Amino acid sequence: MSSLKQLNRAIKLKRMEGMQASRESQLALGLCLKTLTAYSKNNPFQLSIGLALTSIIMVKYRKKVKLFYPFASFGMNLLSQFNAKH
Prior knowledge:
mainly alpha
């Protein structure tokens, strides 16, 4: 019976660690997105130039950088969700 209690305790600790890691990553992502939105409000011209250059590079070399499309899509979804909340 003692081994089952130890196993349950170990499982609970792992779950708590996972929840804490998830919370930390959410806070870090929120901070990053908040910083990005503040930068975009202060420097909209620089951001638009950067996005234009990035899109040109993505279109020109799309066959070589297909790996980056899911990451870019994920980032844009997160940014739109963050902007919808704030």
